[in-house]
Amino acid sequence: MACRMIGSANWRLVATVVLLGVCSLLALAIPSPQDDEEDGTRRIWNKRFQEARARAARRTGKLTNAPTSSQATSRDVGVSDVTAPTASPAGAVDGELIGVTVWRLRNATASDDQNRPRLLAQKDGLQLIAARVAADTPFSEGQMVRLGIEATSERDSYLYVIDREVYADGASSDPYLIFPSQTTPPGGNVVTDGKIVYVPAQADPIPYFTMSPTRKDQVSEALTIIVSPTPLDLTPGAPGDPTRLDSSQVAQWEKQWGGRTEQRESRGGVGKQWTVAEKEAGEGERRLVQGDPLPQTIYRVEVKPGAPALVHVPLRITK
Fold first, then answer.
1. What's the pTM value of the predicted model, to 2 decimals?
2. Which residue from 1, 81, 110, 294 lies 20 to 30 Å from 153 (Cα-Cα)?
3. From the CB of residue 287, how many other CB atoms can be counted at a distance below 10 Å?
């Protein structure tokens, strides 16, 4: 009897292992909802971000499929529920990937889903809701905008955002360092696997930009995003009083680090609201995992391995 009991237990153990293995293979074989809607290039780029998030989970000792309060809202954005990353084909992605999500903010209304997360800031006594937009979305004067930035580097890198006004004749203003600022906490501009950095930061006095042209002929705000493996020798300014940079120095960085760039939008992400997962990750309460929303826009920059990467994100202004 004892021998039969042991044999039965062993059989059940083997069956369980086989079943789990089959389930894992099926999970890898079935494309994610977001992969179904993306082109082949964007699917490969998505996998790079999923792999980076899996690395972060392994380092922190947390399972990539651990349930979170954002599980339902993550699926709303149409992202993968697969818990084991599929390796990208060798040589499929050369250069560096930078994920950028542009958020357009508005005042919450009584008809909005009360279960959705709100920004901590308020305007005119109302809480603010953020929704994703494509990178080339035009903004009207007075609209509120913020950015979420994520990278796939296996080691800590440093994020910098430079702003210039662009005018109808093609001329631009001096460049200004708008992130980090003096209110950015130590490490607040560090990007690493599974971490999202918001610009402006949640802790800033006003955690969003307001589109307010300083000249009638201004057509856009030209943002330059730099992700560098080493800190740059820059002095942050106060919020509302950013540091002016040397134009020739910025031009040199653009030449060195701004290689040929491609971008891909998430076709199903536009209009989706800020999720609890993205809010918690921005506040440092957790890291993004594979089932969380992926960046709305992904840029691939052709640079040498280990070199800084630089991309341009124009915020167009309509009249």
1. 0.79
2. 81
3. 23
